[in-house]
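agent> call fold_tool(seq_1)
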Amino acid sequence: MRNLISITTLIGSIVAVQLLTSFTGTGYYLTQLTMTAYYSLIIIGLCLVMGYAGQISLGHAGFFAIGGYTSAALTTYNLTSMLENGNSLIKFISGRGLLIAAQDLYGDPVLYVNPWIAALLAIFLTVIIAFLIGIPVLKLKGHYLAMATLGFGIIIFRIVLATEIFGEADGLSEVPGFTLLPGVIVNGDFNNRIFNYYIACGFVVVGVIILLNLINSRVGRALRAIHGAEDAANAMGINTSRYKLYTFVISAVFAAIAGIFLTHYNGGIGPSEAGIMKSIRYVAIVAIGGMANLWGALTMGVLLNFMSLRGMFGSYDDAVFGAILIIIMLFAPDGLLHLSIWRKLRKKIL
């Protein structure tokens, strides 16, 4: 019942924000709010890994980039010449209606993978990579695990920065949007701004519902046991390796979905999205919201990401998130929104 009330409040807040921005003539805020929603999807997925499974990941920007870059590359690479040369695979795919024919700015024919098919392939690739990385890496603990995931993030960053098909330092642009209904496209078009806002927020609501059901189930209790004492949980018959791996993969998929839809919404993606500071930022937001506090992580994710996108921190953006992470770890390890923090503060004041 409490979760139902919280979900209803979340949906009400989403609608209220949209109405407020529309009535006050500040509809351009919806662009930042839409991007904030996608970034918040990464935050709640990372909260599952860090807060409930007790695993520190500094490589989630890499999963975001895998999803975004894979989908972008598949939908921007022109397959026309391959079709004309009689490539059997391209002919087969084209015959199944999985490719889209269009024209570029100069009127030349363009043939690319349907964005929905590209998205599914990007998610599938993310799952495969998350499994391959998670199986050996999740055997590590503490700072060893953090360093391993950090190394994974660095590898992804260097790959997208040095690979021609990913645009190297310029990234990828002119990424087509998702066509949901005739005339309704998930991209940054002004006329569809409100619709896109609800699509992004819908992903967050669905993500929260999935995670709440997971956290309050038998799986959630197993994850709490692993977080509290992994050796004891293992001795009680809990398959700790499997739970940690599946949790890691679910979190990676959340990040990939955010990367895919944000890339198609913005019409492009750059290597900065795979940068180490992005991963540190996500960890900092989860920490300040509360490691095992899904609502706290979501609240701070929306607030801090929106402030960052509005340029409120200026050129000190990365420094602010780094400072936040240090301060929280020193003075509020349970998160700024943890009830015990406010109880202690109230006692001191009163």
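agent> call fold_tool(seq_2)
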Amino acid sequence: MRSEQEKIRILSTQIKGVSKKNINIMEVCGTHTMSIARHGIRSLLPENINIISGPGCPVCVTSAGDIHLAIELSKRDDFLVATFGDMLKVPSQGETLQGRKSVAMIYSPLDAVKLAKDNPKKEVVFLGIGFETTAPLIAATIKSAKSEGVNNFSVLSMHKTVPVALDVILSAPGNKIQGLLLPGHVGAITGRRYFDFLKRYQVSGIVTGFAAINMMESLYLLASHLNEERYDIVNNYTHIVSEEGNVCAQEVLAEVFEESDAEWRGIGMIPGSGLKMRSEFEAFDAYKKFSLKTPKIAEAAGCLCGPILMGKNKPSECKHFGKTCTPATPVGPCMVSSEGTCAAYYKYGVNV
């Protein structure tokens, strides 16, 4: 029986054998970004295959204005801001959430509800960051808070959904993306059919997992399809992703949230790409509860996080990368998040 390393070497040879054209492949998921860098997958591919990182890091695509709003909330004496760890070091105008007494790092949205129960004189605001993967759990948490009468808990919903952003990227003038590595964990919730909208473009998409062998198999499929000018949306993660997805999670999500416009870092306002709470759950919507408005905040001077998220630039093309912008002194969110493209390139020494 062949080892996984032997299978990867064979796949590398097979990809080089079938890929005869110059092709651009975007990996949409931040976990794919890290895994490709960690396993040195670019070095296993022929020079004619160019892998581009996309807007798959939820912290990175959160707008500068939303980050600034979260920091401002943390300055209020009557508030506690609950957040996942990746948000703590994202800078806005020289400030971050890290080290503030009014900020609590949590590992589950349910921890934020417990924080609210333990601090009844404080307003606990949870920063709702994430895509279709995390949004159902946050929806279930809001339902739980409502049923338990935890009225000092609310969510600042900065959630994003994948399809409309990909529409923007693929329909942009000069777009040259022909293949997509699609996120397996999003697909586990949404199902493979969720990505059928891609059929309106001349692209091939493969839903895949995160191990090196998963991605090499999917890259082989993409190279084969694109060499033959076949444009299919294929599920290569069938033990996790079904055609219809997790129907229960979808129902909870639809019960609590509805579509809204959302501001994406590097892209701008995308209609229908966000999630806001339905009227039945507005008591837990921090924007409405506290009459909050997201300010317009300029990106840090010279920071290329926006174009990098759009696949227009690579980290090495940013004047800050590895110099004034490092994990210890980040200028933009792509260097902060564990799923950020700049963080992946820096940590694993990617030079392309």
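agent> summarizing second result for user.
The domain at 61-161+245-289 is CATH 3.40.50.11740 (Rossmann fold). Residues 212-227 form the longest helix (16 residues).
agent> awaiting next instruction.
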